[in-house]
Amino acid sequence: MNSITIDCVIFGFDKGSLEVLLVQHGEGIRKGEWGLPGGWIRERESIDNAAHRLLADLTGLDSIYLEQLKAFGEPDRFPLGRVITIGYFALIKKEDYDVRAGFTASDAKWYKIADIPKLIYDHNDILDYSLEHLRNRVRQAPVGFNLLPEKFTLFELMKLYEEILGIEMDKSNFRRKILRMKLLVELDEKQKDVSHRAAKLYEFDQKIYEKLTKKGFNFEF
Amino acid sequence: MNSITIDCVIFGFDKGSLEVLLVQHGEGIRKGEWGLPGGWIRERESIDNAAHRLLADLTGLDSIYLEQLKAFGEPDRFPLGRVITIGYFALIKKEDYDVRAGFTASDAKWYKIADIPKLIYDHNDILDYSLEHLRNRVRQAPVGFNLLPEKFTLFELMKLYEEILGIEMDKSNFRRKILRMKLLVELDEKQKDVSHRAAKLYEFDQKIYEKLTKKGFNFEF
DNA sequence: ACAAAAGTGTTGACAATACACCCATGT
DNA sequence: ACATGGGTGTATTGTCAACACTTTTGT
Description:
Chains A, B: InterPro entries: NUDIX_hydrolase-like_dom_sf, NUDIX_hydrolase_dom, WH-like_DNA-bd_sf, WH_DNA-bd_sf, WHD_NrtR. Two copies of one chain form a homodimer. By secondary structure, chain A is an alpha+beta fold. In chain A, about 30% of the residues lie in helices and about 30% in strands. Chain A is elongated. In chain A, about 30% of the residues are buried. The interface of A and B includes residues 41, 45, 71, 72 and 140 of A. Chain A binds a DNA duplex through helix 4.
């Protein structure tokens, strides 16, 4: 017999920086310390449903990109007994969300990757694992789109990749590469109120993506 | 409070076919039916250790390639109560192993992928998920080597990829591609007792692989 | 001689990379 | 005028894919 919890690593992207949503514990000895949002699985609920429910409670959103990462279960990861946790990995479009603090969290805050504090239990390990997962995932499928607004420019997309992968890219080559994939739909719309030439906006086309994945394709940068 | 188990999908490769090791249940109502080898996690043991221990008990080997897959936890996956299972994924060099039946298994047998019967609980789902994982994994890192003997020919390696990915490849192009990666060490040895021109044997070089992964490289076929 | 796989070579199409350059817009 | 990003073009080099061909060995 063991206890099982869920912990979620929620990524967002804002002004060129990759961020993670953390919550401050509202109860117990760990009060005031930061950690990953999480909770328990209910008796008649699948693990995926539990993760969706927890995320909806915290962010008010229910159509989030969500993937199970893996289970973390070092015997001493939790001081008060054996607790195995199942890590989840979420990508959200930050501007859609009104983050509200959940029931056991007195506060929730976005942290830039470089500014992440020491977290409770093994949450830093889970976070590190997620980051690595994100870097791999983003090279295999266009999951990165889940971090951007519906409409975005090619430059914004490139900056997202640069930030996640920690590399610099060539504007012109990135443009050719991504457009050749035919995954983006060019809109009849341009940026507004920018202090430079306005760029065309693009949308991600889910249907084309699904067609391509059936055939098998790769998304290397 | 929940119960947690571990279930392992063990892949082997024999005479050009991909195979999975299944065990026959020795107890209870399900006696005689086939399933994935598995067991319980001990109180003071990490999840990975538990998986290694279970595999060692079953196969007599303790240096197996092993990866956690993910947790499976549909509320009704197990009929007698809520049990979450953590799936593991193992690759073994078949010729090294003397498979011995474990304590709760009266028999263990290798099944070709195409011949897998209906398994207990959700084990077919876990197996399907593993297969998909293997197909992805093999494209990202040279994990396939764990299924081959220490010394192998380029043709055997190609046949392994063809079988796993379900595609046909060009001998000449495969050869160039794999040799260009510099992951293989050419040995001063040749095949024996084959009814055709004997091929050079190669070895996989773990150190070169580690150097390359740090730099980031990809392994597309 | 034949079968079966080993192993080499060639070619054309396509993609990656680096870099130069002009365009539009707000300050 | 200048900074910032938008957007186009090009030349070089590398890789992929198809396939034709020669070599070696056992039956």
